[in-house]
Amino acid sequence: MPGFAIVVHQGRVSGRQYRTPVMAFPRRGGGWVIALTYGPDVQWARNVQVRGGCTLEVRGRRLAASNPTVVRDPTRRAVPAPVRLVLRLIDVDLFLELDTG
């Protein structure tokens, strides 16, 4: 489904593998951007940041993702217009950027 992906990440303490559904969109210039709808302190985002990356399952592909960076973008320009509107309504302007490839 467009806009949806699975973040496969490893727990910081447990070392277990987890799979978390997210809203992810291709980033201009390469990589992906994930809307942090529950903020930057959710466990999956912390795991990805501490481990320095994850695997992103998108459109049937598994992509190695690295260099996780939390960015604040009040314009929400990294996502499509309809999603931008929804994110504005729920006051989400934080995103996790990931490099792939």
Going by CATH, what is the homologous superfamily? Answer: Electron Transport, Fmn-binding Protein, Chain A
The total tally of domains equals 1
Largest sheet: 6 strands, antiparallel, barrel
On the 0 to 100 scale, the average pLDDT is 95
H/I helix tally? 2
> If strands are numbered along the chain, what order do they take across the biggest sheet?
1-2-3-6-5-4
The rough form would be described as globular
Strand portion, in percent?
Answer: over 45%
CATH architecture identity: Roll
Task: Give the structural class.
Answer: alpha+beta
Please report the total strand number as a whole number. 6
CATH class: Mainly Beta
Compute the CA-based radius of gyration: 13 Å
Task: Explain what you see.
By secondary structure, the protein is α+β, with helices and mostly antiparallel strands. It has a single domain (1-67, 95-101), classed as Electron Transport, Fmn-binding Protein, Chain A (Pnp Oxidase, Chain A). It contains two helices and six strands; from the N terminus they run βββαββαβ. Strands 1-2-3-6-5-4 form a six-stranded antiparallel beta barrel. The model has no long low-confidence stretch (mean pLDDT 95).
Give me the secondary-structure topology.
Elements: E1 4-10, E2 17-26, E3 32-35, H1 43-51, E4 53-58, E5 61-72, H2 81-89, E6 94-100
Antiparallel strand pairs: 1-2, 1-4, 2-3, 3-6, 4-5, 5-6
Short recap of the structure:
The chain is α+β, with helices and mostly antiparallel strands and 101 residues long.
Main attributes of the structure:
101 residues; alpha+beta; Pnp Oxidase, Chain A; 2 helices
